[in-house]
Amino acid sequence: MNEKMLPPISVMKKIFDRRWQIFIVRNLSSSPSPSLSLSETTKRIRNIGLVAHIDAGKTTTTERMLYYSGSSEQMGEVHHGDTVMDFMEQERERGITITMAAATIEWLKHHINIIDTPGHVDFTFEVERSLSVLDGAVIVLDSAAGVQAQTIKIWRQVQRFNIPGLFYANKMDKSNASLDLCLQSLRQKLQIEPLLLQLPVRKQGILTGIIDLINGNLLQWPLDHNDRIEMNRNSSPIEKHCLLSDKISSKFLTSNEHQQYRDEMYHERECLISKLSDYDDTLADHVLSLNQIHDVNPIELIKSIRKLCLQRQLCPLLIGSSYRNIGIQPLLDAICNYLPEPMETRTNQILYEHYTKNPSKPTSTENLCALAFKIHYHQRLGLLTYLRIYSGSLTTNMNVYNLNRQSMEKIIKIYRPFADHFREITASTDHHHHTKTIRESNNQVTIGDIVAVSGLSHTITGDTLVHSNIENNNHDDEDNDELPMLAGIEIPEPVYYCSLECPSVSKFKQLELALHHLQREDPSLHVNYDRNSQQIIIKGMGELHIEIIKDRIRREYGIQVETGPLQVSYRETITKNHRETMEQTKIISGHSNHIRISCEVRPKLSLLDKHLSENIEQDLNDNGENIKRKSETIVKIVNSKDHNLTSQIRPWQLKAIYSGVSKAMEYGPLFSFPVVGVQVFLYEFQTNSSSPLSAPFITNITSQCILQALRKSEPILMEPIMFVEIITPEQFIGPIISDLTIRRSQLMAAHHQSSSIISERNILAKVPLSELFNYSTTLRSITSGMATFDLRLHSYRPLNNEQTANVIKSISGID
């Protein structure tokens, strides 16, 4: 016999469910295609996201950007609970960001779309969906901690999307802030070469200003009576003093201070120019043509930094103290100067080239290509869909075609998002309202824009929208398969679940609607109905994620739900082969329809292998990514010499078979956990029908056949193993490792990292998720709140008999 390998089920679904080719096009280009004919308005758009480890000051930084750009009337404070971007009640109460928020500001004639993202590990999907539509990133660091656990995870996401970024060392006003620590941790933990653009200036231990190495200026902000910088909406700081000049131009500087700052500036500026010259031959040639290195024009430095930043060879590092209002204006300048415009990403160029049918009118609606990256249910406006425009333009009352759903939809209204406020883009602009952030003089948005629209009832996160003409041409043009579709957004697998109890039968329909809305808004939330217990099961990314969902149902929908105990989301697999044959006859419209199917299930890995867990881990990559893709069921059609089964099965029948296999793998035979690590072999598929069989009939019998085979293949449970990274001061290393040992952990490394300020350890371990309940509380207790940790799904490992018995007891509640 020979076996014909077929792609995983999800790949087959893509083949059958749509005729479009997927292009994952995120390779960055350092410059836009010379053939592009775009307006200066488009070139001045910046789509950037602020990302950070929790409590690094990301939201405070965003609030200052809104205020100094004139987009917000007051400066919100996290500890006051009055921030613009953290608008949810839970966010303001807890002082953390839970969901991504978007806002638009104007700065130096640039149009900046800012997306503020969560820093907590439970809301990593919000970061993922944000990065999928961004052109640049600002990674905020705590200057006293440098690169932290979540910073590393976020940086991996930024790298995966090939997004250029700059770093902002916040909280430089803290007594233990260390610029050296930030530089060292960027090199050691992120393996990147930072490009220091600024130096801190302190007077009597208080941060008062910044030395700008590009222009050779000392930027100073006057303090108020609370040692905070006076709030001033000037686009430049209160005082600018040129250190390149011998003349003291500031009445606030003594000659000794002037010389001290000047010497420091000259040394670091020379280092900056030398480093740039090592990477940029054009700048190196320019430097060699000058009498001295400091004669380099700042404009040439900005060009070089921008080029190397877009090529992701160097990462600019800026400094400041957002809470004390220092460094925000230079940071905004850097966003405009160094981060890419929309057409400086390869994604945009490819989509532009494929969808622009009329290059003389690049912003025509016929060239539309947009990605839906967020769904939001607004109390007043209803269902809103966030879109990123990659090609063409969008107008109100416009028909669009959803490539993923293969359906037509209509854009009713277009809004400019500003946190939880939405300003409608209409044919005229109200100059008396602060709708000055609305750039358009008509109701059209174009390449690079990020907007929210109403009217899309079927579109979900990750869908690609194009002009309705694409659907009309689909029937006539055989080359439509070459049209690119955006890669969409990868949804992570949930690791926790719990039951959700409705307070009364009368509230059940209302609860179903609430869960439907929440799941559309947050695809990392999974909702299932347990067939055995008749309970609603919700699955999420962590304890806080589940807690927030419960709280939102209570507050936003008025349903006082209760949750059962939090449980680990296990997986099921099999330990031996089993072949099952099933036959079924069905009478349809008086005609007999007979079907016979024979399938065999086999484990991917032999459980007799003593290194089983290591093999399973190697099936995933080092970062624990793409686990869903790696664990998909492989289906093979088995052909014999005398019988070619592949040619016998029609495409629509094969699609129905795959659907049945997929359905069977969703709920395992033990405890209805998803099944992983199984191969399916199709040996026989026969039909004897006087009328065509329906696809649901084929799907149903396939599912029954596979499920019966799984039951007889000695199924076992597998537990999720988390990759845990802990950053802790040296003195707590012993207690932490002792605690991890009790939790059945496998210690991988305990790297020593030191600086002039602190000495710390970076502990890496693999720990069963079931051992990590309330671990944040335990770690905080052990280290007095001085350690941080991050965890991500690494692999699945089979349970032994004793562990399985404990799980059964936990799930069933029976000893």
From TrEMBL:
Q: What is this protein called?
A: Ribosome-releasing factor 2, mitochondrial-like
- Which GO molecular function, any one, fits this protein according to its record? GTPase activity
Q: Name one Pfam family in it.
A: EFG_C
Key words, A-Z = GTP-binding, Mitochondrion, Nucleotide-binding, Protein biosynthesis
Query: Which CDD domains does its entry note?
Result: EFG_III (cd16262), EFG_mtEFG_C (cd03713)
**Which GO CC annotations does the UniProt entry carry?**
mitochondrial matrix
Cite the Tr-type G domain residue spans from the record. 43-343
What does the entry give for GO biological process?
A: mitochondrial translation; ribosome disassembly
InterPro entries per the UniProt record, alphabetical: EFG_II (IPR041095), EFG_III (IPR009022), EFG_III/V (IPR035647), EFG_V (IPR035649), EFG_V-like (IPR000640), G_TR_CS (IPR031157), P-loop_NTPase (IPR027417), Ribosomal_Su5_D2-typ_SF (IPR020568)
Tell me which domain of life the UniProt entry assigns to the organism this sequence originates from.
Eukaryota
Q: Which organism is it from?
A: Dermatophagoides pteronyssinus (European house dust mite)
Please name the Gene3D superfamilies in this protein's record: 3.30.230.10, 3.30.70.240, Elongation Factor G (Translational Gtpase), domain 3, P-loop containing nucleotide triphosphate hydrolases, Translation factors
